[in-house]
Amino acid sequence: xxxxxxxxxxxxxxxxxxxxxxxxxALCAATISASCGRILPKGPKPRVQIVxxxxxxxxxxxxxxxxxxxxxxxxxxxxxxxxxxxxxxxxTAINTHPLVxxxxxxxxxxxxxxxxxxxxxxxxxxxxxxxxxxxxxxKEIPRFEQSFVDLNIDKLREVQIPNPHSALRSLYLPTTVLxxxxxxxxxxxxxxxxxxxxxSMKNLFGIVPGxxxxxxxxxxxxxxxxxxxxxxxxxxxxxxxxxxxxxxxxGNGPIQGEPKAAGILVAGADMPAVDATCCRVMKIDxxxxxxxxxxxxxGQTNAERVIQTGExxxxxxxxFKLLPALEPLRLRASS
Amino acid sequence: MPTNSxxxxxxxxxxxxxxxxxxxxxxxxxxxPTSLALLxxxxxxxxxxxxxEGGLEWLSKQRRQDGxxxxxxxxxxxxxxxxxxxxxLHRYRTLTRQDSGFEWLLQVEGAESGWVSRVRRWLLSGxxxxxxxxxxxxxxxxxxxxxxxxxxxxxxxxxxxxxxxxTFAPRIDSASQFLLSRRCADGGWNHGSSRALGxxxxxxxxxxxLALLxxxxxxxxxxxxxxxxxxxxxRNCRSVEGWSWLQMGLRAQGVTPPHVVPPVLNLRDxxxxxxxxxxxxxxxxxxxxxxx
Lengths: 335, 292
Description:
The complex is a heterodimer.
Chain A: H1 23-36, E1 47-52, H2 59-69, E2 78-83, H3 98-110, E3 115-120, H4 128-134, H5 137-140, H6 144-147, E4 148-150, E5 156-160, E6 170-174, H7 175-178, E7 182-186, E8 188-192, E9 196-198, H8 210-213, H9 218-223, H10 225-235, E10 239-250, E11 258-268, H11 271-281, H12 290-295, E12 307-310, H13 313-316
Chain B: H1 4-13, H2 31-43, H3 50-62, H4 81-91, H5 100-107, H6 115-125, H7 146-159, H8 168-181, E1 195-196, E2 199-200, H9 205-214, H10 220-235, H11 240-252, H12 270-283
Antiparallel strand pairs in B: 1-2
Helix pairs in contact in B: 1-12, 2-3, 2-4, 2-12, 4-7, 7-8, 7-9, 9-10, 9-11, 10-11, 11-12
């Protein structure tokens, strides 16, 4: 049995299995390209910050500065922090580090949020609390139990998807997320064997309730991974991202890869722009990541359309290893 | 660590006003924790109490027109939980041979084993043998996976004598083959993706226990390395749920596991509490899935 996770897969991981553009994605990307290929679209440029950081630094101050610099309107808002909790393995870089989550939690509180929750719905394991405990969340985040919601079994509401990219017409989603004024996606900087990369947007799979769709949330695979990511992005319009790239993962991510120290946090309010920047940091071509092309309505995955602050991409970029089947995603010098 | 009696009392006390159980004390009722709580209550001799009657009534109200059950009232689709509910109703002797849930179970299969998918797979790879077995999906229209398939096998095995006119045996056999085809290289099971892009997946405690439970009766030769893996997983188990399924799976295989103290039961999740109580019933000599 080989690669039996993905409905479209065959035994030898062919080109069709790579996270490159599907026909639907290609059509959409072509439309975008036609409209913005040579003449870049107008409109406000998204801002993406790259900040050097280590786990033993004062992450709270670093994150607070990021949020203040971003002019994020948090006062009196209900905020949900969405880390990436995947698997039992505290010694690798699978899960978002609890110190980063704690720093965001305290920074958001200090900026006047009325209510802050940490929420996650792991995609493969049902034992969410045990994963959190093993990943150090109870130890590092005071009163974690009072702040956490398992999105896999939260109260639900069915939400229609306007003009869906995927085959889905609606999704049941947790009310904790739907009631939030702002969702802060706090993923790990990782490669992903189906989607190419898993960053702030792929992290949105974790808001889809396993209690309905199962472990894995395979309905999303059948509807199209890239297209489902794009739909989720559409359904959660108020978001911000802080990507934990202090130690990321390369190779066979998102679970079996190797830790890769990049020593950065990447943040911004525009998810496609943040993820495209992360791709460049990992020396992966964002133009080859289907979900980024689907969601780049304003050309924001184009480096020229991003206001880059903090560290330059060049100064922090490192080649993240890719599985051989994913090598076509590599950022070329001309890209 | 709460005693079994304390865990049971907690379960009874924290049921919802509508008669069902949620996952946690503050949540609305869901089908799966309600079903598992009812199984645990009955095993503890509490099958005729107001708590059990309330739970059964809640379940009966949740039945959908197609004969199945959804995971919770907010969801409009019947899913794999139908198998679990039918088993509960059977145990409480409120199930008839004509129940429409049986047909629902038989008509559902993983989308990958449908003919369109098989032709597509054959055209792409020249080989569709690995998806010819019929398991059950978590949600209609998706692929089959280990946990829903294992629990549906367990339910069907128990329901089979009630409905001899229905052909459960071929589905049970095909689903068992499905489980064996999804076994990881290490001998255990994860969610159902044993290998991806040339890399072997690692098995999980909870799904390994579930698969062993469903594959009860398979030859020792077939199951030996899985039992060994289950013991290895048990020794390093970090969840009550994983510990509980491994206990039940190994004992269903006729293996007495080594003594491993379970992680602390926090009574946080009613489903987990009920599974723990079922496992403890097995430790005391009663197979909770076959006990009539």
